[in-house]
Amino acid sequence: MSSSDSKHSSDLKVEDVEKVKAPALDAHYDPALVKKTLRRNDLRILPLLGFLYAVALIDRTNLGIARIAGMEVDLKLYIGERYSIASMSYFIPYILLQVPGNLLLRKIGARNWLTICVVGWGAAQLGMGFVPTWGWLVFCRVWLGVFEAGFFPACVFIISTWYKRHEVQKRLAIFYLSSLVITSFSSIFAYALTLLKGKGNLNGWAWIFVIEGVITIVLGVLAYLFIPDFPDKATFLSPEQRKMVLDRVEADRGDSIPDEITRAKVFKHLTDPLVWAYAFMFLASTVPAYAIGFFITIILFSMGYTLTEALCLTAPPGIAAAVSVYIFAHISDKTKRRAIWLAMQNLMCITGLLITAYANANGVRYFGLFLVNAGASGCVPGVLAYSSNNMTSHSKRAVQTAIIVAAGGIGGIIATTAFQQKDYPRYIPGMWVTIAFQFAMIGLLGVTTFVLHRRNQLRREGKIGPLEGTEDFYYTL
């Protein structure tokens, strides 16, 4: 590297980024520097964001644990569909605020935006510990959705800007599986909190929300000190390392420097059919994921296990899912294929749903929950990587990621309404709704694979212009 290469400010210009071809890029830099920088990025970005996302998952899904810990009786959630309404109310603002949140992300900055989100939903979580009626519970759940709306799409957006396309899924998987491992033990932690029953005139379920809400607020304040920003503004890297990160991304997909977000660009991105195809895939993936999150303890409880046993038995399926997620992500990045591995995990999920729905022995039904959890969990980062690999520009990344994650919120609404109280304890209609979405996703994967393969072929034959407006860019199948 020349001395001039290392003299860059934190806000690099487009002309400062070297546009070398991807095959020669890593050879352009010292391999030791590339490896050291990637490791430093991984350690700074993935554990922190993964831990915060684990907290988000715990805070949005601990309603099921609180329900069987006494909240159902205290707030009369057994009347009609009150539990489903309380669960679903979270997703309405969560869906509506995804795109505005990602558009604000670049203006406000990653650190400020994520801190506002975490502290805000922590306050809503804390408030749930003091609700006197189920109506106030719904009110707090709405605010939980307001502040969590901007968090997950921002994390995916941030992570995808730091790495080359075929390095992304493994990173997204690490981010996601770290949250799976932590949330697997959340039920046990929640059970420990219920033992505070009677303290401060609060029932055990209320202490779940109070303690976890306080923890979330504290983490939000501490995270402000460590949350990384986008590569062009990163201060924890040297100028040479920052330039190397930007060069690699530029050579890989040509969008290392953010483009201006305009109304015309937003509308253009919203009219791309592929954006909505990825969104449906993510929706299909989150239906079983949310069903497990909200109902696994209830399903286990219905099998005849005690409260303590049901809460403890939620951990193993999550740990097994984390292992499965990483294995599939590693294979997907190594083979540079996305759709085929997503379809395999859909089939795994379908198998698990059928076993849990129709098997007689509790042990067999419990094994089915392992398959459902593994298949659904693996598809979440898989779809995000599939979509991220097949787009360029920060403006499209902001819009597309928000739309996809918003669709995941719709999946949450479907999961919480398809699994109805009248269908307890096996929830057969809800199981079949979830299975239908898995089959639909497999069909859509076939369509997108054909379309993307055809576009790649036409581009190689020179019959169409640059894909995504970027020279030497080809879709990942």
Automatic annotation (TrEMBL):
Keyword Membrane carried by entry: yes
A molecular function (GO) term: transmembrane transporter activity
Chief place where the protein resides: membrane
GO cellular component, one term: membrane
Domain Major facilitator superfamily (MFS) profile: residue ranges: 48-455
Compartments where located: Membrane
Membrane topology: Multi-pass membrane protein
Pfam families the record matches: MFS_1 (PF07690)
TM region positions: 45-63, 83-105, 112-136, 142-162, 174-193, 205-227, 275-301, 307-328, 340-360, 366-386, 398-419, 431-452
Alphabetic keyword roster: Membrane, Transmembrane, Transmembrane helix, Transport
Taxonomy, superkingdom: Eukaryota
PANTHER family in alphabetical order: MAJOR FACILITATOR SUPERFAMILY (MFS) PROFILE DOMAIN-CONTAINING PROTEIN, PERMEASE-RELATED
Name of the protein: Major facilitator superfamily (MFS) profile domain-containing protein
Organism of derivation: Cyclocybe aegerita (Black poplar mushroom)
Lineage of the species this protein comes from: Eukaryota, Fungi, Dikarya, Basidiomycota, Agaricomycotina
